[in-house]
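Case study 2.
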Amino acid sequence: MQTQLLPANEAGIAFAARLLQEGQTVAIPTETVYGLAADATSNEAVAKIFAAKGRPQDNPLIVHIAAMQELEGLVRTVPAAAYKLAQAFWPGPLTIIMPKGPKVADAVCAGLDTVAIRMPSHPVAAAVIKKSGLPLAAPSANRSGLPSPTTADHTLRDMDGRIPLILDGGACKVGVESTVITVAADTPTLLRPGYITKEQLEQVLGEPVALSDAILHKLKEGEAAPSPGMKYKHYSPKANVILLKGSQQAYREYVCQHAEVGVFAMCYDEEVSSLPVPCVVCGSRQDEAAQARRLFAALRECDEKGAVTVYAHCPKPTGVGMAVYNRLIRAAAFQVVELEAAKL
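Prediction:
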């Protein structure tokens, strides 16, 4: 298959919509990461997503819509909590899990009786949904397990020859996948952290939001993943990533002691000048949004520069930093070194 990379203009959007209506897959930009889209009501179309990504079929997908009325048939009911969250955060980088409706292809939900829905704020994603007239299942447009793509070039590297079209809408502004919350149970529960934080969700809902244990830890043996991004190893480059948890001084000392050929530091702006190995910078230690925006590009850069081992400085697991931590700990397959006298 030949993959076309086209600008996300009116002609490109119309072509993407036509391919989607024909049951094909198309990579589109969103505010979070590039997504690999297909008709969410067709098992045959959704199967092409899994094939292109090499994605396990027990990993559910997120359905993208462009208007609230499109929820009809996709969900059985819209809980009051979902209305509150949608009013506050849609369109935007929030996915809400609700009871599954009859229109959704079974393959989207990986055997679950719930469906994950979001309304992207990126104008190109919204335009493609509207033009196609379809709800779109759209996981990140990368090969399964690799860092998610935040540019059309990243997407082409992973999807060239696997899908017919990539729309180039520039770099993604958020840089990590959407926050995922379920309101299908008695207690609203955060399943995947993102740019919209636990604290923001609680402020809107007026009640505590539980934190899934799988955000910061491995899924239990045999446990089903209720949300994308909860698998043991995910978002990972070819290089071996190891998280170092500790103060700036402890991080520097550890990297200095392990400064071998092929070792890279994935660090903050403030640390570069003091490290004896090649550095890939992920933003300022004080700017969690910049870290999120830069994260996946930084992981890909490690491979491009030939890193064998990457020592990543562990972020604080709070606010937007929780999203960065969540992605990094999976990129590292939960390899974390607790440095002596760690002070986060």
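The chain is about 30% helix and 20% strand.
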